[in-house]
Amino acid sequence: MRLPLIVVAVVAAVWLAPLFLSVESGLRFGWPYQIFFTLVVLFGGFVFYMLRAKPTPPFKSTGKAFGSMVLVFLGSIGVIVLLANVAPQFGFEETSAGGATAEERGRALFSNPNVGCFLCHTIAGSGGTRGPDLSHVASVAGKRRPGVSAEDYLKESLQDPAAFVVPTFDKIMPPFAQRLSSEELADLLTYLLSLK
Predict the structure, then answer these.
(1) Which residue of 6, 44, 91, 138 is 20 to 30 Å from 63, comparing CA positions?
(2) Residue 178 included in any domain
(3) 157 is in which domain, residue-wise?
(4) Using CA atoms, how far apart are residues 44 and 173, in angstroms rounded to an integer?
(5) Contact 55/64 with Cβ under 8 angstroms?
(6) How far, in Å, CA of 3 to CA of 49, rounded?
(7) What Cα–Cα distance (Å) separates residue 99 from each residue in 95, 102, 104, 168, 190?
(8) Alpha helices of 112-173 — where are they, by DSSP H?
């Protein structure tokens, strides 16, 4: 009887604890994380319940046993994929573009999930690793291709990423000229040129 009470108490803590976190703490938990932790607690409670339950009789056929394993595997993968699509993977803060400088607007674009730069590129240790690290891109970009300035190289990379791909990386970057306005591209370029 204690197990259900423990599960209910932990789930309540998952949903109530964020209400008591101050803004100054810097800790923020959105509803995707709360749902994730709730599912983890419920799954843990289910596992402990099953450990105390009577053993089930063995499967009479190999096909049923294999089918059960496949269902558990697909169900687990399905939950993981669902959570990966719902919960953000990186903690970039979006900045307000209103009244901001071109560099600030470019930083907001880089961190915007709808644009997705941070999914593949790292800046100062945060972001993805499928593309080159951009922490010092303004210093490095001018050395990528002889005779091409950092600004021209980055502009070309945003408009036509397939023109030159950094060795050891795949051709996966989309052409942002089709997704962003010329003003947004200019803001993003300004931000990248500030990363020295």
Answers:
(1) 44
(2) yes
(3) 102-193
(4) 40
(5) no
(6) 8
(7) 11, 9, 9, 39, 16
(8) 117-120, 137-140, 150-159
Residue 65 belongs to some domain of the structure: yes
Identify the three-state secondary structure at position 126.
strand
**Residue 14 in contact with residue 37, Cβ under 8 Å?**
yes
CA 133/CA 145 separation, integer angstroms: 17
Instruction: Return the amino acid letter for 53.
Output: A
Residue keyed to tokens 């005779």: 147
Which CATH number does the domain housing residue 121 bear?
1.10.760.10
Per residue in 48-104, pLDDT (tens digit) is: 887 777 777 777 888 888 888 888 888 888 877 776 666 555 444 444 455 578 888
User: What is the number of residues in the chain?
Assistant: 196
Whole-angstrom Cα distance, residue 188 to residue 190? Answer: 5
The reply to whether 115 and 78 lie within a common domain is no
Give the count of beta carbons closer than 10 Å to the beta carbon of residue 3: 13
What's the pLDDT tens digit per position in 147-171? 888 888 888 888 888 777 788 888 8
Q: Is 26 left (phi over 0), alpha (psi -120 to 50) or beta?
A: left
